[in-house]
Amino acid sequence: MKTAFGAYEAKTKLPELLRGVQAGRRYTITHRGEAIAELVPVTTGRHGAAEAVEQMKQFMKAAPVRGVDLKALIEEGRR
Question: pTM, whole model, 2 decimals?
C-alpha cells in the first residue's frame, strides 16, 4: 500500500486516510516530492507530572551536563 501522498491527493482522499490512521496506519504528505508532514495516530494516555519528573531524572543521569552554571542560565532566561 502507498504510504506517501501528494498534498492534493491527500486533500481529496482525507476521509479515507483518516480511516487508515484510525486503523493504525501512518502516511507521509509530500509537496512537489518533498515530505512536509506526517499523518499519524494520536498517542493515547497523557503523561503525569510525576512521570515527567522521573523521565527527566533518568535523562540527567544518562547525559550529565558539566561545566554549566544553571543559575546563570535561569537568570538569563528571566531577562
Answer: 0.53
